[in-house]
Amino acid sequence: MADEARVRSVESLEYFRSALIVFHSKARKAVAHAEDAVKRGRYWVEQEMNIHWSQELKKRARKLAQAQAELLTARLSKYQDSVMLQEKLLRRAKEDMVEAETKLRHIKRWAREYDRVYDPAMKGLAHLGDYLEHDIPGAVAWMEQALKTLASYLERERPSGGAPAAPTDAEPEPATDSATPV
Questions:
Q1: What CA–CA distance (Å, rounded) separates 23 from 20?
Q2: Number of other residues whose CB lies within 10 A of the CB of residue 60
Q3: Contact 125/34 with Cβ under 8 angstroms?
Q4: Per-residue pLDDT tens for 111-134?
Q5: Residue 172 pLDDT > 70
Q6: Torsions phi, psi of 5, nearest 5?
Q7: CB atoms < 10 A from the CB of 122, how many?
Q8: Domains plus CATH for the chain?
Q9: Which residues contact 83 (CB under 8 A, 6 or more apart)?
């Protein structure tokens, strides 16, 4: 028969279906984790680092002003060693100030460019999330229906326990005729 399928077992399909369900669960968690990581990164750049380097800039500006005042005081004093030490501390404070200004500029630039850099990845994650949310459950449901259909097909092909009994070798009883004398 040309329309007959040769289905012997559906175990492989059942295994694939269960593996697909496990993949679906793990992939959804991974996508959510990646989206959260991008959001945490944005918050870290825009908020935490911006606040940190703004405060650091203010602190270093105070240290610079203090170093300038101490250098002025040292110049007014009679000790030349103190002046050289204060000049060294002033140079160090200026370097620290330049570093803080540079870091703050970089943080502000990163905050502006963050979305441009991470938007393509976020769009890909959103697309994958939609796929996982809509297409995979549909595929699992389709597979369940296919498995049911194949299982019912296999049941029809197997001989059932209520098959007709085979003929026995015993001789049939002779029929009695009421018209014949005994």
A1: 5
A2: 20
A3: yes
A4: 889 888 888 889 999 999 999 999
A5: no
A6: -95, 150
A7: 15
A8: 11-151 (1.10.287)
A9: 71, 74, 75, 77
